[in-house]
Every structure is written in C-alpha cells, then in structure tokens.
Recover the amino acids of this structure.
C-alpha cells in the first residue's frame, strides 16, 4: 500500500518552490549572510506546515512535462511577487539614505550592504539596518509567512496569470520607491537646506570666513543631529508604509 502518492510528492515540491522563492527574494531572508541551504530549509519547513491544507484542497495537477515546467514557473512568480513587493520598501529607505548621505558630503564613504548586494553610503546602510530592526519588531517576517499561506486561498497552484491590473499596481509600487525615499529623508533634507541658507547668510555677513572649510563639518553635524532627533518620525513613517505595503501584497495576490 502506497502511503504517499506521486501527486502528493509533486504538490509538496510546488509548495517548496513558492515558499523558497519568497524567502530568496524578501528582505532579511535574502541576505547573503544566510546560506542558501537555510533558505531552502525554511521553505521546506513552511511547505510541510502548509501541505495538509493544500492537500485537502485537491488541486488538479497535470504531470506532463510542459505543464509541470509552467506550474513551477508560476509558483516562482507567486513567491517572488510577495518578496519583491516588500523589498521595494527597503529600496526606498536605501534611496533616502543615499540622498541624505550625498547631501551631507558622505559621497566617498561607501560600505557593502548585503541586503541590497551592492555598495551604498554609510547613511544608507545605517537606515537599512534600522529598517530591518523595525521590520522584525513590527512582525514583518511573520506577515510574509502569513502571505504565503494566504496566497493559496486567492491564488491556488497554477493560478498565477499575467494581469493588467496586477502589472499596473506593481509598476506603481516600483515608482513609489522615490516617493518613499523623499518621505523618509524629508526631515533631514529640510534641516540641511536651512543649514545651507544659514551658512549663505553668514558668508555674506562675514566675508573673511572660509565658509567651505567651516561648512563641511557643520553640514555633517547638522545632518547627524537631525537624523537622531527625527528618528521617531522615521519609525512612524516606516510603520505606516509597512502597513500599506502589506495591503498592497494582498491586493496583488488577488489581482494575479
């Protein structure tokens, strides 16, 4: 007597593909510091948890080669939709850090950011670390797991299809990266602008002062000070944006 059927094995593999695709594309989980085997292991653990629910739905799975490849591809796209969408929030935070770092004069101070797999300014890295911290505090990682489980309610296996509504929403969210960056960086941008105005007035009032020599450390001090004082604003904005992106992920799953 066969305890596990061929269809159940295939079903578990498809569950593994969707979960692993999410972990491989989502922030925090996609970090290079986390070995790929751990990501696959997390995907396998989530697939084991979801399997009884998915098996009870009696999904109609075809076993010919072409449809099997298409199903795997669709599951990858579903998982990446969840992970990629939430990563846009972190891209916006990184953009804010890059802009502020450039405005403060930290253009040459670059460090490697493993969450984005590229070199960024020290301010961008600082904001990314803070974003990861608050993402975990606000249970963002729990939401990602819940989103994968919920996706089988609105987007069953093989249900992902190219949707005009979904693609328009995804393009809109991608464009929102720059808006997010401005929202996160706004307090420091305003502070640095006022600092520049003040230094311009001082330069006109005291022509003997070497404003370029004095202005550089003043801009750095002003930028860091307002970043520290404006940290509660950053927390509030990030919380609101995270809630918004969670709703957008649910919308995308329903749209596709």
């Amino acid at each position: 007597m066969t305890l596990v059927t061929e269809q159940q094995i295939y079903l578990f593999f498809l569950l593994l593909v969707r979960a692993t695709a999410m972990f491989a594309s989502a922030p925090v989980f996609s970090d290079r510091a986390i070995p790929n085997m751990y990501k696959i292991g997390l995907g396998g653990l989530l697939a084991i948890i979801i399997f009884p629910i998915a098996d009870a739905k009696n999904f109609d799975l075809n076993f010919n080669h072409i449809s099997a490849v298409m199903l795997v591809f669709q599951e990858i796209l579903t998982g990446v939709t969840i992970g990629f969408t939430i990563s846009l929030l972190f891209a916006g935070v990184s953009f804010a850090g890059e802009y502020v770092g450039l405005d403060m004069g930290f253009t040459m101070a670059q460090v490697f950011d493993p969450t984005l797999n590229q070199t960024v300014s020290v301010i961008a890295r600082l904001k990314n670390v803070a974003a990861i911290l608050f993402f975990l505090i606000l249970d963002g990682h729990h939401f990602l797991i819940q989103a994968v489980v919920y996706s089988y309610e609105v987007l069953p296996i093989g249900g992902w299809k190219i949707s005009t509504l979904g693609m328009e929403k995804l393009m809109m969210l991608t464009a929102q990266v720059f808006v997010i960056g401005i929202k996160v960086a706004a307090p420091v941008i305003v502070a640095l602008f006022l600092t520049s105005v003040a230094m311009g007035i001082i330069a006109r009032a005291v022509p003997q002062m070497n404003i370029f020599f004095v202005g550089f450390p003043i801009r750095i001090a002003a930028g860091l000070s307002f970043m520290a004082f404006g940290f509660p604003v950053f927390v509030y904005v990030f919380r609101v944006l995270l809630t918004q992106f969670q709703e957008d992920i649910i919308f995308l799953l329903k749209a596709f």
Summary: Strands lie at 110-113, 118-121. Helices lie at 6-25, 36-56, 65-104, 122-137, 140-154, 164-205, 211-229, 231-255. DSSP finds eight helices and two strands in the chain. The radius of gyration is 23 Å.
